[in-house]
Amino acid sequence: MLSLSRRNLSPLSLTSLVHMFSSRGEPPVVLQPKTAKCSGTVIFMHGLGDRGASWASCWAELHDKIPHVRFICPTAPERPVTLNMGMVMPAWYDLSGLSSRENERCDGIEQSRATIEALIESEKRAGVPSNRIVLAGFSQGGAMALYCGLQFAQQLAGVLAMSSYLPRPTALTAIVQQHKTNLQTPVLMCHGDWDQVVQLAWARTSLASLQKMGVQRAELKVYPNMQHEANDAELRDALAFLNKVLPEPQPQLSSKL
Fold first, then answer.
1. Are 146 and 126 a contacting pair, CB within 8 Å?
2. CB 40 within 8 A of CB 132
3. 228 assigned to active site
4. In angstroms, how far is CA 185 from the centroid of its own chain?
5. According to the model, what pLDDT value does residue 179 have?
6. Contact (Cβ atoms closer than 8 angstroms) between residue 73 and residue 52
7. Which of 39, 107, 228, 237 is catalytic?
8. 39 catalytically annotated
C-alpha cells in the first residue's frame, strides 16, 4: 500500500542544495537520488496553501521505486489569495473564484514561472539536461507544470499534472504555437471523478485545449470515487509515467576483452 501520510521528514533524510528561496526564505526540499549519479530530475509543485515538504514526504516513501531521480519540491511564495478572502498563504498565483479557470487572471504566475525556470537552469548547470527533467505538480502546482512546461524553450522529458487544469489557455496557445518545442513532450493528467475543488470537466476542457494547440502526447487518466486528493492507483500511474520518461540509464558494457 502506498502511503500518503504528510508527516514531517527527518532533516537527515533530506538535503537542500538548491538556493532558491520563497518570500519567507523557505528553500525547496530536495530528495537526492539513491544511486551513485543523478540521471534525471522531477520538480514537483504543491497545491494552494500547501508547502514543498508535504509532497516531499510522499515522494520520499516512493523513492526506492525510482532511485536514480532527484526530486525537488519548492514552496510557493506567500501572497494574499482573493478566493480565500485575502488570506496570505503559499500560492503560485492568485485565484479569484471556484468557477471554470479559463478566464482567471492568475496574477503572479509569471513570477512563479521565472522561479521554476531558474530551478531548471540550476539542474542543467548541475549536469542534468532539460530532456531529463520533468515538471510535475498537484492542483495549482499541476497547473504550473502545464503552464511552465509547454512554453519552456527547450525539450523537457515530460509533464505530470495531478487534479489540475490548464491556466490561461488562450495566451498559452499563442506562445506554444510560436516555438513548438514541447509539442511532442509526454503529458499525463490524472483526475478523480468526485473532485469538487477542481472539477473533472475542467480537466477534460484542458485536455481538449492541449490537443487543439498541437500537443501530440497528452493523456487524461480518471480515477473512480477519488476526490481532490491522490490515491494509490494514481501514484502507481504517476510512478510508471516518471519511470517511462526518465528511464534509468543502463550501464555501458566495456569494449575491452
1. no
2. yes
3. yes
4. 14
5. 81
6. yes
7. 228
8. no
